[in-house]
Structures are given as C-alpha cells and as structure tokens.
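Incident review: delayed structure delivery

Summary: a single-chain prediction request sat in the queue longer than the usual turnaround. Root cause was a stuck worker, restarted by the on-call engineer. No data loss occurred. The affected request and its eventual output are reproduced below so the record is complete for anyone auditing the incident later.

Affected input:
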Amino acid sequence: MCCCGKPIINGEFGYKWQPNDDPGVRQPYAPELCDGDELTYDEPGRCGGLDSHSHHYSVVARTGSFELLVRHGGGEDRTSLGPKKVLATAFSILDSTARYWMLNAIYHSYRDGKRRGTEESNSRWRLAAAEKRIKVRKVRGSATMKVSIVPQVLLPA
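Output delivered after worker restart:
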C-alpha cells in the first residue's frame, strides 16, 4: 500500500510504504534486456491515484517492431506491441506519466487476456478428459504424438 502523499516515481525521494514510515527512495528495477534490444523508453514504477511502484516498463525496438518488457513482483514478461513505424509517433507525443499509464493499461489487458485464454483452454481439456474425448495418435515414422479433442456428440431432442 503506497502512502507517498503525492505522485512519486521510483528513484525519487518521497516514497512511503506505511503512513508512519520516514520518506525514502524506492530504487527502479528495470527488466533485463536481451541481445538485439534497443531501449527506446524506460518507465520506472510510480504512484498517482494508483499504487504501481512494483511495475517497471521498458519499450525496446527489435527488428522493426516495439516490444514491451515488464518487471513486477511476480517476475518478468515480454510482449509485442506492433510495428515501430506506426507506434513511434504515438509514444513520442506522450509525456513520461501518460506513457507509463498507457503501458500499464496495455500490459494489464495483455495479462488478463492471457489468463482468460489459459483458463478457457484448461476448462475445455478438463471437460474432454472427464468425458473421455481425448484422442492420442502416434505419427507414423516419428516419435511424436498427435493429441486432439473429439467433438461432443449431441443426441437429437
């Protein structure tokens, strides 16, 4: 729970975790870059109506597109944002605060969609397993297997 009292960016003096803490500095904790990543924007965690000190966003250019790198309390994530040519102007007209909250919205939408997709897929496979509708077939001449779900047979009413 952030108790800064005013908007603070990680790395600035004034960060408070508890109301009776002395103000201090929460150090930025940027995501790791990979070979070929060209750092374009680096947005440390911050607050300002919402506590987001634990999320650090970096936008990197990589072979003509932008990727979003995120470091948070649960680890790191990376996802594609799209063509650099299209997004460069949009990101450049935003100030640091607006860009941070836009990246925050993009990341949370990505994460929620990923979680929902995983839940739906797991539910579908669990139901198929319970109904014994999973088909496993060895691919001839190979050590691989093909696994599929047999469609449900609906009886006429």
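Verification: Residues 96-130 form the longest helix (35 residues).
Action items: add queue-age alerting; document worker restart procedure.
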